[in-house]
Specification:
This protein has helices spanning about 15-25, 25-30, 35-50, 55-75, 85-100, 110-145, 165-190, 210-220, 225-230, 235-260, 290-310, 325-350, 355-365, 370-380, 385-400, 410-415, 425, 430-435, 445-460, and strands at about 150-155, 160-165, 195, 220-225, 270, 350-355. By secondary structure, the chain is mainly α.
């Protein structure tokens, strides 16, 4: 006996079992059930407003949809591959509950504009949750930065010690990255916040449906302007995946530093036992596996972005079944991103900072060499010449096995008569750091000022 599907009127054979399994998306798009039902309730209101169904019929449909939602939420709903997707599964169950009236719900719409709506509703909800998680992470960074406000560490370029910075300044660099990440997600919301229902399969609906009324019911700020684009657009998903890839890139950079800093070679931090693992062979090991996994998961988020860009690049207008492949990359990215954003704040909050090790590292490697050059510049020497003099002093110190702070005054004078006794103060690590009091610099005053600003931002929800 031929299986009855909503589209089976034109067909004389059942779908092949293997083809049916490949065609079905119910195994993963069932997570859209709340958004699908929400969209269907709004659509019921719209077709009632258009006189396609009565107010009484609309109420019965809505009550039926809410009953279906309770069944799915309560785990009592049986999902079957022969129903293909969440849209058909809900419609079939609705019809079994309220009879042929359930078949009227799909009037004036297609699964093409239905899924476009579901994806936008779903993504809007998820973006707000991710922005909230980023906000919590920013609060964490500020808390740890304040707790370690006087901690000095080497700043690096090329992974070589460069100039002294405050650990707080270093952590606030990631605050700035996350701040931009939130901004990009708000931009994504702007593009996702347009209601596609009413586009039909591709050409628009022949019924007099009030799309703006539907948008108001569903909380959209606008409606889409072209029916072809409405059902074939996945820019809003790709834009979100791109923003997510950037977030993961930032978290991966932080992961790399956590991994380096927690090594015995650096010894700058020690991660809590709660966020590390051991070795099955080497009893002494304490591995930064959570940070490593965060770094590793970045690759899968990149892959999801590339997958969807590749998926869409050759598709003619309008909808193509290829686009069913948009959901798993999106779902996986959201799940991955939320998992990492949830676990990183407590990992950062509970790490132990070895301030002494950081300061000792900052005292080595001639991180104050630029300050010696700047000292000469202030005495009138051109910077390029001063740079050469300072470089020669560093070479001398390396050969002799001393630091700039350990040089005697007569040694300074061998390189330039412009050096005076106050050179010792100029190359002091703390003085070097606090000299960078320019806006955005690493001086204690600048960092404290920035902390006050970002705390005010966070209180305002920025």
């Amino acid at each position: 006996m031929k299986k009855q599907k909503p589209w089976s009127g034109r067909f004389s054979e059942d779908t092949d079992t293997l083809a049916e399994e490949m065609n079905a998306s119910i195994s993963f798009d069932k997570r859209l059930f709340r958004h699908d039902i929400r969209g269907s309730i709004a659509h019921a209101g719209v077709i009632a407003r258009a006189g396609i169904i009565t107010v009484s019929e609309c109420k019965k449909i809505i009550n039926g949809l809410r009953a279906v939602e309770k069944e799915i939420s309560g785990g009592r709903f049986r999902f079957s591959p022969d129903l293909e997707d969440i849209h058909m599964a809900i419609e079939q169950r609705l019809t079994s509950l309220i009879g042929p009236l359930g078949g009227k719900l799909h009037t004036g719409r297609s699964r093409n504009d239905q899924v476009a709506l579901d994806m936008r509703l779903y993504l809007k909800d998820e973006i707000y949750e991710i922005i909230s998680l980023i906000h919590a992470f920013k609060l964490c960074l500020v808390e740890v930065a304040e707790r370690n406000i006087g901690c000095v560490m080497p700043g690096y370029t090329h992974l070589q010690r460069a100039q002294p910075v405050l650990l707080s300044h270093h952590l606030l660099a990631y605050y700035e990255m996350l701040r931009r990440d939130s901004g990009r997600l708000f931009d994504c919301l702007d593009r996702a916040d347009s209601m596609p229902l009413g586009a039909g399969a591709l050409a628009g609906s022949p019924y007099d449906l009030d799309r703006r009324y539907c948008a108001k019911l569903l909380g959209f700020s606008s409606v889409t302007e072209n029916s072809l684009d409405s059902v074939s657009d996945r820019d809003f998903v790709i834009e979100f995946l791109s923003a997510s890839a950037l977030i993961m890139m930032h978290l991966s950079r932080l992961s790399e530093e956590i991994i380096l800093w927690s090594s015995q070679e650096f010894g700058f931090i020690e991660l809590s036992d709660a966020f590390t693992t051991g070795s099955s062979v080497m009893p002494q090991k304490k591995n930064p596996d959570i940070a490593e996994l965060g770094r590793g998961k970045t690759g899968r988020v990149y892959g999801n972005l590339i997958a969807l860009l590749t998926l869409m690049k050759g598709l003619p207008l309008a909808y193509n079944k290829d686009m069913q492949e948009d959901k798993e990359p999106l779902f996986d990215t959201i799940d991955t991103l939320k998992q990492v954003l949830r676990v990183y704040p407590p990992m950062i909050k509970t790490m132990r900072v070895n301030k002494e090790a950081m300061m000792n590292a900052a005292r080595k490697g001639f991180l104050n060499a630029t300050d010696a050059a700047d000292y000469l510049v202030k005495k009138g020497m051109p910077f390029r010449e001063a740079h050469g003099v300072s470089g020669a002093i560093v070479a001398y110190c390396i050969k002799k096995g001393v630091t700039l702070e350990e040089m005697e005054m007569d040694e300074w004078l061998r390189f330039s008569k412009l050096f005076k006794n106050d050179i010792k103060e100029a190359v002091n690590i703390m003085n070097s750091l606090n000299a960078r009091k320019i806006h955005g610099g690493t001086s204690l005053a600048s960092v404290k000022k920035r902390l006050n600003t970002v705390k005010a931002e966070l209180r305002q929800g920025i």
